[in-house]
C-alpha cells in the first residue's frame, strides 16, 4: 500500500502518562511521529493531541483504533491531508547585523509573509506561519544571512468538515 501523511486528532481529559501510552502505540508498530502538538481544546477540561505520521491507510486506521481504546481518550479521529486545514509556526533568530547590508532580508520577509516580532540590541526574532515547506523555504533563504536559532512547532490542524467539535467532544465525554 502507498505510504502518505496522516493526522490524528485525539481528545482526552488531562491525565498524566497519556502521551506515553500514545507514543507506545507508534513504537510497537515501528512508526515515527513526524509532528506532535498538544493543547487545550475549546471544551473546558479537554485536551487535544495532534499527531502527524506517515504510513499506509490500513495501518493508520489500526493506530487510530488502538488510540481510541485507551482509557483516558474520549475520541480519536483520523484525517487524510485533504480533510484538514493545517499550519505550523516558525521562529527565526538572527543577528541584528544581518540587516546592515541593505534591504535583502526585509524583501525576503515580505516575500514569505513573515514578520519581525522582537528587536533587541544584538538580535531580532522573525515569525512565520504556514506549511512546513513554506517555513523551511524561508529558513533556506535566510541561512546566508546567519540564522543563530530556529524552531518550528508541530502541526496544528482543524477538520474541513462542518462539525461543532465542542458538541462532539461533549457527546464523547457523556459516553465515556
**Beta-strand proportion:** 35-45%
Largest sheet: 5 strands, antiparallel
Helix count, per DSSP? Answer: 5
From the 3D coordinates, which CATH architecture of the largest domain would you assign?
Answer: 2-Layer Sandwich
Write the layout of secondary structure elements.
Elements (H helix, E strand, L loop, with lengths): L3 E10 L4 H11 L4 E8 L5 E10 L1 H12 L4 E8 L3 E12 L8 H9 L2 E5 L3 E8 L1 H11 L4 E6 L3 E4 L5 H11 L1
Antiparallel strand pairs: 1-3, 1-4, 2-3, 5-7, 5-8, 5-9, 6-7
Question: Notable features of this structure?
Answer:
176 residues, alpha+beta, Alpha-Beta Plaits, 2 domains, 5-stranded antiparallel sheet, 4-stranded antiparallel sheet, 40% strand, elongated
Please characterize this protein's 3D structure:
This protein has helices spanning 18-28, 57-68, 104-112, 132-142, 165-175; strands spanning 4-13, 33-40, 46-55, 73-80, 84-95, 115-119, 123-130, 147-152, 156-159. The protein is an alpha+beta fold and 176 residues long. The longest helix has 12 residues, at 57-68. It is elongated.
Amino acid at each position: 500500500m502507498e505510504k502518505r501523511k496522516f493526522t490524528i486528532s485525539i481528545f482526552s481529559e488531562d491525565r498524566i502518562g497519556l502521551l506515553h501510552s500514545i507514543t507506545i502505540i507508534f513504537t510497537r508498530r515501528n512508526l515515527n511521529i513526524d509532528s506532535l502538538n498538544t493543547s487545550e481544546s475549546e471544551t473546558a477540561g479537554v485536551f487535544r493531541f495532534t499527531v502527524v505520521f506517515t504510513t499506509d491507510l490500513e495501518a493508520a486506521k489500526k493506530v487510530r483504533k488502538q488510540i481510541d481504546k485507551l482509557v483516558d481518550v474520549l475520541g480519536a479521529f483520523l484525517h487524510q491531508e485533504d480533510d484538514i486545514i493545517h499550519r505550523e509556526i516558525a521562529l527565526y533568530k538572527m543577528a541584528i547585523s544581518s540587516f546592515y547590508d541593505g534591504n535583502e532580508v526585509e524583501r525576503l520577509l515580505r516575500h514569505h509573509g513573515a514578520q519581525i516580532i522582537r528587536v533587541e540590541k544584538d538580535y531580532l526574532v522573525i515569525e512565520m506561519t504556514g506549511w512546513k515547506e513554506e517555513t523551511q523555504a524561508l529558513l533556506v533563504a535566510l541561512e546566508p544571512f546567519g540564522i543563530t536559532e530556529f524552531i518550528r512547532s508541530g502541526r496544528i490542524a482543524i477538520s474541513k468538515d462542518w462539525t461543532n467539535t465542542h458538541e462532539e467532544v461533549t457527546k464523547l465525554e457523556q459516553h465515556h
